[in-house]
Amino acid sequence: MSVALSSKSGEFGDDSINLMAPAGRSKFGWIPQISGWCIGAAVCLGCLLLILILGVVAHNSSAIGHRDSMCENMIDSLTADRESLRAERDQLKDTSSNLTKEIEALQSQYKAVAASRDKLQEEVNTLNLTRARRECHQGWKAFGDKCYYFSTSGVTKSWALSRKDCLERGADLAIVTTREELDFVSKTYAVTWIGLSDKDREGKWVWVDGTELQGDEFWQDGEPNNSDGDEDCAEVSRSAKRFNDVPCSRRFSWACEL
Ligand SMILES: [Ca+2]
Ligand SMILES: [Ca+2]
Ligand SMILES: [Ca+2]
Q: Which CATH number fits domain 141-257: 3.40.50.300, 3.30.460.80, 3.60.10.10, 3.10.100.10?
């Protein structure tokens, strides 16, 4: 393929320019001949450039598409997490509401049980008072839920005969287990027999019902001392309001408990 430049006939005569001169050069010698391979190379270069541009565009499009896909996946995942958290929150709200209702129900039940307990306790106290008053025969004194018989004023007996009198009345010598009972039993006479002795085994103080004395806070200071080796029965005095061991043969008033 060649390009030839020529003048109109007669305008330039022999001075017309022919770029297709056989020698490969123009008559002027400075205009290069544009050969076919140059044009082909240019076309190829253009094609390569176009392919490169298309490749870059395709790559960018693919990257953008991939990024959009990742974003969509992330949004879907976050949306699913949000829905899951909402569901958990709603479930916790329901659980909290149910627990609150259960607590309120338990509190209501507790109040009802406490009220019932208090009412029952009042009834028990009333019954105890009624029982004490009803069961105490004439000549007996009520204290708490028990009845007590105090021997006739001026009559004294040994510990054994005092106990015999109580047994004949269907009772026994008083068993004193509280400070209040001690004050009650000891206030009638100067000295009163109670149902406590160590006559079966020295030093082992046992009540008439067979139970062993618990603690030693009710003894007078220095008692029991088993003075002269012959003090096996316990009395209470109005002045001391505490126990003392004395010979069982001594004669005192006595107190029976039923
Ligand atoms: Ca008692
Ligand atoms: Ca003794
Ligand atoms: Ca003594």
A: 3.10.100.10
